[in-house]
Amino acid sequence: MYLKALEIQGFKSFPEKTVLSFGEDITAIVGPNGSGKSNISDAIRWVMGEQSTRALRGGKMEDVIFGGTARRKQLGFAEVSLVLDNADRMFQVEESEVMVTRRYYRSGESEYYINRRSVRLKDVNELFMDTGLGREGYSIIGQGKIDEILSVKSADRREVFEEAAGISRFRHRKEEAERKLERTQENLVRITDKIDELE
Ligand code: ATP
């Protein structure tokens, strides 16, 4: 698996459709201050499902959409696609390439696609789970991240190791099942109350 390409349109400082093609040998992106290097890593973070505007260096989600300049009007939506090689079938999709797309409109509407098929955010999160990529992955180490990992509670730190060990998926499923059980338990109590009332 490796990062093949990143397509950015209307995201932060990239109003035009911009395609960055990465070979297996690209290791760095260089450029002058303020030229948009961090916006590229923000785009990768964002397309993988990031919901924290703070992690995206903004105040609200709308800040990811090109906000206009003195010579150019603001845009109505941002779209980013990430193309990953899947020859080794690291991702659980049939194709040998995975393209994940996220689109966000100023109205607040979000769309997600995996290989051009419309999906939910949950599907994107599950695609990346246990791969080290994704929202809870450790593939993007931003400034201050190392300090954060060292200073968080040991339970939070364990999550990084769980992701590397490939067991996050099961923790998430367990948490989901526990929530369902709790809801079912509440429903049972309610039904028992109703039966008691009728008797
Ligand atoms: P440095 O080397 O100083 O860290 P950088 O290359 O990482 O810089 P970025 O932080 O990626 O630069 O880009 C900053 C630029 O992006 C600023 O000029 C800022 O105005 C622009 N920018 C950020 N968000 C938007 C937006 N929504 N619309 C238009 N431009 C934006």
Tell me the layout of helices and strands.
Layout lengths: L2 E7 L8 E4 L15 H11 L29 E9 L11 E9 L4 E5 L2 E3 L1 H8 L16 H7 L2 H12 L2 H31 L1
Antiparallel strand pairs: 1-2, 1-3, 3-4, 4-5, 5-6
CATH architecture of the domain at 3-126: 3-Layer(aba) Sandwich
Radius of gyration, whole Å = 20 Å
User: Which series of helices and strands comes N to C?
Assistant: EEHEEEEHHHH
Counted by DSSP, the helix tally is 5
Mean pLDDT: 91
Placed side by side, the strands forming the largest sheet appear as 2-1-3-4-5-6
Name the CATH class of the domain at 3-126.
Alpha Beta
What does the overall shape look like?
A: globular
Largest sheet: 6 strands, antiparallel
- In the CATH hierarchy, what is the superfamily of the domain at 3-126? P-loop containing nucleotide triphosphate hydrolases
**What is the β-strand count?**
6
Q: Helix coverage percent of residues?
A: 25-40%
Structural class: alpha+beta
CATH topology of the domain at 3-126: Rossmann fold
Small molecules bound in the structure, each named once: adenosine-5'-triphosphate
Unreliably modeled segments: none
Please report which band the strand proportion falls in: under 5%, 5-15%, 15-25%, 25-35%, 35-45% or over 45%: 15-25%
Distance separating the two termini:
63 Å
